[in-house]
Amino acid sequence: MTKTKDNLFKPEKLSAQAKSEQTTSIAKDILANETSARQKKTERLRALRLAQEAELGPAPKATKKGKKG
C-alpha cells in the first residue's frame, strides 16, 4: 500500500463497538488519574494537618454557654 495524502490524514472508520471501547478506556484513564490526584492531595493535607496539630498541641475544648433568656 502506498502512502498518499488520503490514507495518511483520513482516520479509519471505527465500528460502534470499537468507539465504545475507546471511550470507555479513555474515561477509565481519566477517572484513575483523578482518583490518584485526589489521594495524593488528601495525603498531603492530612500530613500538614497532623504536623500543625502536633505543633500547636491539643485543641482547647469548647465550653458550653448557658441559655439566654
TrEMBL record:
Residues 1-13 have a biased composition (Basic and acidic residues). It comes from the Bacteria. Residues 1-24 are annotated as: Disordered. This is Transcriptional regulator.
